[in-house]
Amino acid sequence: MQVQSAYASGMQGLQSAQQGLAQATTAVAIPDQQKPAVSASTQDTVTLSSQAMSQSDQTSALIDATQSVNQAQASTKVIEAASETVGSLIDIEV
User: Fold this and answer.
1) pLDDT 10s digits, 32-51
2) What is the pLDDT of residues 78-94, one digit of tens each?
3) What pLDDT sits at residue 15?
4) CA dihedral of residues 17, 20, 22, 26 (deg, nearest 10)
5) Residues 6+ apart with CB under 8 A from 68
6) Could you tell me which residue, 48 or 14, shows the higher pLDDT?
7) Are 79 and 14 in contact (CB under 8 A)?
8) Residues of 4-17 as b/e, b for ≥16 C-beta within 10 angstroms?
9) Which of 24, 28, 30, 59 is most buried as measured by Cβ atoms within 10 A of its Cβ?
């Protein structure tokens, strides 16, 4: 087992989680005012369907954000384990 590769994997996972969280929070933060407004009298099934899709997209983005947080926590544990392993192999504490 290479300790350096474990550390590199942890860092790569942490960077991936950061990018995923940034994308998910951006998807949630897009205000609904940027979407074209439709009057209540002209709403049809397609418009209502697109609004439901928008809510579904936000829910999906929030789930992605939670997954990114979990990935970041797991990657942090990998980095900590790699650091402890290096410390025990060299007989020093980091």
Assistant:
1) 545 555 555 555 555 545 55
2) 999 888 887 666 665 55
3) 96
4) -160
5) 17, 18, 20, 21, 24
6) 14
7) yes
8) eebbeebeebbeeb
9) 24
Q: Is 68 exposed, middle or buried (0-12, 13-18, 19+ CB in 10 A)?
A: buried
Residue 14 pLDDT more than 70? yes
Instruction: Name, in order, each residue with C-beta under 8 angstroms of 16's C-beta and a sequence gap of 6 or more.
Output: 71, 75
> Rounded to two decimals, what is the model's pTM?
0.65
Q: Rounded CA gap, 50 and 17, in Å?
A: 29
d(CA 40, CA 34): 17
Q: H helices within 1-94, ranges in order?
A: 3-29, 45-90
What is the rounded distance in angstroms from the CA atom of residue 28 to the CA atom of residue 31? 8
Cα dihedral 79, 68, 20, 4, rounded to 10, equals 10
